[in-house]
Amino acid sequence: MTLHELLDKPVWQMTGEELLFLAQHGQRHTETNSTQQTSAKEERHFVYGLSGLARLFGCSLPTANRIKQSGKIDRAITQVGRKIIVDADLALELAGRKSGGRR
Fold first, then answer.
1. pTM for the whole thing?
2. Distance between terminal CA atoms of the chain?
3. Backbone angles phi, psi at 21, to 5 degrees
4. Which pLDDT belongs to residue 40?
5. Which of 3, 21, 45, 77 is 20–30 Å from 31 (CA)?
6. β-pairing, 77-80 with 83-87?
7. Cα–Cα distance between 36 and 24 in angstroms, integer?
8. What region, left, alpha or beta, does residue 89 occupy, with left being phi > 0 and alpha being psi -120 to 50 degrees?
9. What are the distances in angstroms from CA 64 to CA 11, 31, 53, 89, 93?
10. In what order do the strands lie in the sheet containing 77-80?
11. Which of 49, 36, 43, 57 is nearest to 86 (CA)?
12. pLDDT, tens only, 6-16
């Protein structure tokens, strides 16, 4: 019996030997699939709203609003109406860059 045939068979109809075979080979199969999926699809982390932005930067809500209004992290922000979605990794990267400022 092949792996694909065992995957189609209901668990309650399997023998102990078939179940162990499926557990051993199925685990290897899922490990290879999960590594391919994570490498193919970059995981992104989002925060929502000003409160999420405040938690991301570890600051108060008014300061998070000032950061948003400054325009430094505009590329990381998507806003539709009142809903604010911030790409956390990109926002941290953009906020860390220096541009101008005092001398």
1. 0.55
2. 74
3. -60, -45
4. 44
5. 45
6. antiparallel
7. 19
8. alpha
9. 53, 40, 6, 16, 16
10. 46-48, 83-87, 77-80
11. 49
12. 788 888 888 88
Domain boundaries, the chain: 3-40, 46-96
**Structure tokens, 97:** 């860059």
19 three-class SS = helix
Length of the chain in residues, anyone? 103
At position 68, the amino acid (one-letter code) is K
**pLDDT tens-place string over residues 49-89:** 999 999 999 999 999 999 999 999 999 999 999 999 999 99
Tokens describing residue 26 = 């199925």
Dist. CA 53–CA 93, nearest whole Å? 14
Task: Give, in order, the Cα–Cα distances in Å from 73 to each of 4, 66, 86, 89, 98.
Answer: 49, 11, 9, 11, 12
Give SS3 for 77: strand
| Of 68, 63, 67, 72, the residue nearest 82 (C-alpha) | 68
